[in-house]
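Appendix B. Chain record.
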Amino acid sequence: MKTQDQYRLTFTHPGSGTSVVTDEVVVERTDALGPGGNPVYCDPTGILRAEISPAGEVRMLASGAYQSPINPSAEPIP
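Structure tokens predicted for this chain:
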């Protein structure tokens, strides 16, 4: 299976009242591997880092202290 070069990560969290807020971030593959042995993807700022398996499972990786990232959904970008 070919390793994807880019993914669109979609984060969903509660907004005000009953609304839901959705944020999307595009990440690109780096040369690094995560703790599960899968490629690590990073946003242009280097702050958002995620290990993504070929099955699309996402493990967010903290890039600094005091972070507690939530797991988004991942969509490959052709």
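Further analysis of this model is presented in Appendix C.
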